[in-house]
Amino acid sequence: MHAVRDHERAVDTLRRSYAAVPAGEPVRLAKRTSNLFRPRSAPRVPGLDVSGLTGVLAVDPTARTADVQGMCTYEDLVDATLPHGLMPLVVPQLRTITLGGAVTGLGIESTSFRNGLPHESVTELDVLTGAGELLTVRPTGEHADLFRAFPNSLGSLGYATRLRIELQPVRRHVALRNIRFTRLEELADAIRDVVAKGEWAGEPVDAMDGVVFSPGEAYLVLGSFSDEAERPSDYTGQEIYYRSLRRRTRDALTTYDYLWRWDTDWFWCSAAFGVQHPVVRRLWPARYRRSDFYHRLVRLEHRHQVAARVDRWRGRPARERVVQDVEIPLDRTADFLRWFDKHVGMTPVWLCPLRLREPAGPGSARAWPLYPLQPDETYVNIGFWGSVPIAEGAADGDVNRAIERAVSEAGGHKSLYSDAYYDRAAFDRLYGGETWRAVKDRYDPDHRLTGLYEKAVARQ
């Protein structure tokens, strides 16, 4: 009962802070962490007070569900579910991603080849709309249109204060097989085989992702939940996870460490701060080997441009940020990876196969119009995070624009947490603009909340 009362007070605080924002001023969340790589205009008024919406309200081990506040991080959510032998159906790879953020902004991980995206495990959620109403929305009923349009709306339709999600049983360890491929077509065939059979070489597969170091060296990492592991590896200290794929064909991690295997080094991006150098690593406090700390360093660099000034002093070209996750149909994945290697040249890149979940019941196939993936299609999420030199005569953003064109030509989509350059017509076509406007007019008739295009492309 205390949790319920505390939650009600936190929602009241949020609603009061929303009412205090003057009409015409942008509405933002006042949150300490962010996983966005999209610069935004500076707010002129205080953000919404979500400080009381950061916890897990309840875990039901029998029903395998959890009621979670919108600003709860997956780190805290996993801490609450693992003691029950349960985990969310999809746990995005970075600790401070929030449940509300993963639903309204999308998330993915290695269980997505069978469990889809995080919003597909949501059975109901409470949303504070742009009209200031608090609504409980479900897949069916009066507010089903908001339920379907909420994923990938990026806060343009409202903010989730509570979500009820499905959980899955999990074991103590994850046994890993690191399968090397020298041809990208063979890797794609292996993904297709695992998706179809749920196994590889006679062993079950519960999780699947991969890394491409070059078109001739790629790895598929196949995980199986297990209660047995002689000596699980530890990649939170001197060892670095992604490097192990080249050295080990078999591995094992505790389930907890597996869920956060990418967070310690922010995949491989910690190298930009020197943290992968053995001497620096020994001196760098373990509590700072986390993605949220690295992200704070990146935000400081964006603010003060220290590295950019040093590059100019040394006569080096300016650099363009290329930080994206894109979904490419499996049949086009090998071609896209070769195009990317030739025209962008960043390595490594992350692979995460994805299929939308099976319908929840007879005749209840769900559509997600603001990120319209085909329900019978296997996609591969390709993640690449870094920067490239701006070529002479080119403009900042040209590489990202070329990637957008290549993704569209391949029949794919890209996530909107980072830079986007679409014109409005293309954006509306790709991200359900007609549906978004209809839902926006119903639940935010005065358009108090910043629009989706304005957030994703205009950086408002």
UniProtKB/TrEMBL annotation:
Gene3D superfamilies: 3.30.465.10. The keyword Flavoprotein applies. It is found in: Membrane. It is a single-pass membrane protein. Its EC number is 1.3.1.72. Keywords: FAD, Flavoprotein, Membrane, Oxidoreductase, Transmembrane, Transmembrane helix. This is Delta(24)-sterol reductase. It comes from Micromonospora sp. CCTCC AA 2012012. Its main location: membrane.
